[in-house]
Amino acid sequence: MDDIKPKHVLCFAHRGEAKAFIKRWNLKGSGEKALSGVWSTQAKQLAGDKQPPDVWILGEGIESAGIRLSYLLGRFPEVNSVINLGVAGFVLGGVVPKGFSLPEIGSLVQIRTSYGMHYDQKVRFKSYTNENLLEELPVFDCFSIGRRLTQANEYLYVSGFAAIVDMELWGLHAAAASAGCKLESIKVVSDVVDPNRAIPENLCSLVKSKSDELSELLWQAWTTWEDSRKKPTSRSELPKDFAEQLNSEFPQRFWLSSYQKNELGKHLRALSISKSLEPEELNSIVLKWIRKSQIDHIKGPAKKRGGVLSDRLKEMIYAEGAFGAR
Questions:
Q1: How remote is the C-alpha of 187 from its chain's centroid?
Q2: CB-based burial of residue 286 (10 Å sphere; 0-12 exposed, 13-18 middle, 19+ buried)?
Q3: Would you call 185 helix, strand, or coil by DSSP?
Q4: Which of 41, 114, 156, 221 has a CA positioned 20 to 30 A from the CA of residue 55?
Q5: Pairing between strand 108-116 and 128-129?
Q6: What is the Cα–Cα distance from 155 to 300, expressed in whole angstroms?
Q7: Of 100, 6, 98, whose CA–CA distance to 53 is shortest?
Q8: pLDDT for res 326
Q9: How buried is 326 (Cβ within 10 angstroms: 0-12 exposed, 13-18 middle, 19+ buried)?
Q10: What DSSP designation does 296 have?
């Protein structure tokens, strides 16, 4: 599985949001009906040039966008990272992180935790949190609504969970998690809602009338994301000896993205320090734990098991009495 190269795609709800990307990269839509909304470069890149990521237009709505993403991730299993770029509303009175000012129309924000609402306004039990955040952008939580809200009391209810509101992110997170795929999201604020006042009838009108400007702001968000990922980090890489033993004992059962390798390496280092373990002893303990926990038997693609391995190891390390004492 080591020969599989990590690949990410950009996803949007509407084509208007992706205008700047399609134009700059000269992307072409797929001729296959089942792949409607998939845009990719058709030209061969010059040697050394970076191939631009594909752009997926998924549509609006928690269920419809999530189902569409699930289908495309199934068609393109090499994709292991999805970056969602789109517009969202900001609700006054919602939770604003300490140290950040209230965002205005046109502000870029990144999403930490995604909450969801059913069509009947009941909150979905599951939430999703992204810990791989940029230093350059303010961090907010997002509440994905099942339908367009028209009443002030509806927005007041939502503000108790999050300040940012959209109509698809929770569904995208659910689809990505099911496929063992990482998802990050950056939003541009298109509307500001005051739940203590009547909701204006022209709410969301800016999305249509200023789609070119909003798309350019999303392009700015993408370049910020790319520049941040190019910076050197202090995260620990996965030790080579552990990687070799993992592949030897569980051939083709785990595939880890670069991010997951860094995270797993960080967890292993934390365990080594906390238990005063030498590398050989550390590897033996963790591999034995993997066999006992049967993570390698989890159904699904190898990249899903890789994600579960990293997450569960983190939980075990910080659990009281985990792995015992030396």
A1: 12
A2: buried
A3: strand
A4: 114
A5: antiparallel
A6: 38
A7: 6
A8: 40
A9: exposed
A10: G
**How does pLDDT run across 304-323, given as a tens digit for each residue?**
888 888 888 777 766 645 55
Q: Token pair for residue 74?
A: 């199934």
Give the C-alpha separation, 202 to 211, whole Å: 15
Look at the block and give the residue holding tokens 């070119």. 212
Tell me, what DSSP letter sits at residue 299?
Answer: S
CB count within 10 Å of CB 15 equals 16
List Cβ neighbours of 213 (8 Å cut-off, separation of 6 or more): 106
User: If phi over 0 gives left and psi between -120 and 50 gives alpha, with beta otherwise, what is residue 127?
Assistant: beta
CATH architecture of the domain 7-230 equals 3-Layer(aba) Sandwich (3.40)
How far apart are alpha carbons 212 and 191 in whole angstroms?
16
The pair of three-digit structure tokens given for residue 226, joined into one six-digit string: 């790319």
- Specify whether the CB–CB gap between 259 and 286 falls below 8 A: no
Map out the domains of the chain as residue ranges: 7-230, 240-317
DSSP, collapsed to helix, strand or coil, labels residue 133 as coil
Residue 169 is inside which H or E element, if any?
Answer: helix 169-178
* pLDDT above 90: residue 274: no
d(CA 26, CA 252): 37
